[in-house]
Write the structure tokens for this entry.
Amino acid sequence: MTEVPTAVLEVTDLATHFHTARGIVRAVDGVSFSIEPGQTLGIVGESGSGKSVLARTIIRILTRDGSATVTGRIALDGRDLLTLSETDMRDVRGKDIAMVFQNPMSSLNPVKRIGTQIGEVLTRHLGLRGRAAQIRSVELLASVGISLPAERLNHYPHQLSGGMRQRVAIAIAIACEPKLLIADEPTTALDVTIQAQILDLLRRQQRAHNMAMILISHDLGMVAAHTDLVGVMYAGQMVERAPTRSLFHGCHMPYTRALIRSAPKLSDPPHTRLRAISGGPPDMLQPAIGCRFGPRCDYATDMCRSYKPALSAADADGTHLYACWHPLVAGRILP
Amino acid sequence: MKPDELLSVENLSATYRLPHGRKLSAVANISFSIHKGETLGLVGESGCGKSTVGRSIMQLPPPTGGTVIFEGRDLASLGGEALRRARMRLHMIFQDPVSSLNPRRKVRDIVAEPMAIAGVVTAPERVRRVRIALAAVSLDPDRVMDRRPHEFSGGQCQRIAIARALIMEPQLVICDEPVSALDVSVRAQILNLLEDMKARYCLALLFISHDLAVVKNISDRVAVMYLGQFCELAPSARLYQAPLHPYTAALIAAIPVMDPDRRPAAPPLLAGELPSPMNPPSGCRFRTRCPRAAAHCEELEPAWREAEPGHFVACHFPLRPAR
């Protein structure tokens, strides 16, 4: 008998709304998914689709000026994070859930030495101090591939290259062996060769600790290569969710196919005409009624312009879900 | 200079002086040419000097060594009015479309500005040309002319920047990472637009980018740069199909392909990071990261040579033997 894997993170009907002077922005609007230990969920979508707000909602680092309201459920090992007090949440953040950002300087303190910053996490969550904290810090820096780790402890972030700073940010994120690591565009600011190194590092750390990971990216190639599951976001909603292979071999939502097709491919000869998606990203203050991708979709009908499509299962076990009135099947539109 | 050559760059160098008598060699001895109507792609990692090449051609600032011959004249020897006139045939598009447009001016004035500086045409004629240029980049002149940049998305701002670059009907447009700040769906629109404009105005492009897939799509020929020097230059299809330089091969291998059945090489082919351009390695600058490096590479800088017709490389141990 095989053991039924239990999700480490279960997000149910999550919504994050910002109340602005110009109206309500539904940045995340009814998103559900779950991740098991050791799994990587990729989240793709264009800028403004709500990817980063989703991450920030899960780790609860949205603005605290009252402009954001969050509803739904975020269960980490069965415990709903949305019901925790800020004090309790501080014990979760950095320990059970950690985050790596696009710009490592946004998480590193520019006026503190690297060693001090790693030490703070070790002291706060694991109670390590002095010599013990220092030994562990050196181990962590070595494990993320930083040469001469003991010397690096005395350096400031500005003395390191962008790739090295991201390695330090990862070292801090994995210091307490979190159950879930959220990486928000972790390599977007880095060169392609350094990007490959960082992704390789994240994958090895994930394997070593059986960590669950959310990898947010706009780069579909990276998501295809480094994830087990993919969620495609459009205008705050998850419009398709599937195992990575299933998604890239047969997506059902026209937006997903349009995204995949619009990227230039190395396998195509030079001057291949790209299939651009017409129009621009949606206006989040006034998203389209019905299907939000409708105004840019080649297949939209009156149905799409009037009613919002619900998530439906494409397969018997319900792992491949899509929200579309006219899904693609084997690359064709069903009548 | 051959008859169909639009731009010929010989031994271009850009060296910056730093405090304490140190020098930074951002670009060292680069030679290449661009033909009429051709797109030359220029790829490399950040800090390799690719943007400096673009700026040196524009004489912003002038390079510290070498010649830049554009339409038969050495731009470095020109100054003042003559340089300004030559630059009318040469334009630039930048990565961040929003910050390259003056936020306080209306679109009609932004696009008309090159004509205003040149002082070439009457006011009604300027308006007529602005309308044509905006329509060419698929913007509705009636709806956009009296609006300001902040009212537009990044993709639309890049269209405005392209309209401005084309208003004087230049021969060469230098595009410095023109689609890097754009979303993938909008990126395809702008790349298609650049191809259309190239055909319509018979433009040559120098297309600078770190994205190898984008560069392959738009370029006729591609040059690969590392630490201020060219490693390899070849027709686009040839370079990607059969690279000669180990750096080119590693760059191509590092690009994630959109295929869930192909997992990336682990560990990655290229270890380490770009060395400091203030203190570049002796001999071949790539040798500190090169899987094929030998003692020879440390002692002698590899010569820039034509390994096969139209395919140039600077490497002692290219991936395939020279014919």
About this structure: Residues 184-201 of chain B form the longest helix (18 residues). Chain B has a mean pLDDT of 90. Residues 97 and 158 of chain B are 5 Å apart (CA to CA).
